[in-house]
CCD43 protein
Amino acid sequence: EEDLLNDVCREVVEKWSETQIVDAKEKKEDEIQAIASMMEKQAKIVVKPKEVSQEEKQRKAALLAQYANVTDEEEYPFTDPIKTHCLDRRSLFRNTNVEDVLNARKLERELLRDEFQKKKEQDKLQREKDKLAKQERKEKEKKRTQKGERKR
């Protein structure tokens, strides 16, 4: 009976492993099918190219032709590029961004300096007041102790 039992166990294990293989194949096929269906859906979603009218094409071509006609051989009013750059720079505009930023920082520093000075003075006055108050307390305490000693 043991031989029969071993045979039966082996047969059960073989059948079980066969079903596992079949299940794995089915899962893979399901995954492949899902991927294929997703790809089909994506293939259906196609961006249609923009249709450009003939008039728009002509306008674009005219613009490109207009800008393509500019050549390097044209002469400019200034011959010296260094002087040109300096003259253009001075005559056209003056960039004040850097100056504005520096002035703003300078103002901010001055304000902070003034605030610090005020705080320093206030602290000094407060220390003096505290010192005076401390002296007054000492004097009052001294007077109390003297009064108490006189009574004795």
Q: What stands out?
A: Residues 2 and 8 are 10 Å apart (CA to CA). The longest helix spans residues 97-151. Helices lie at 2-44, 54-68, 81-92, 97-151.
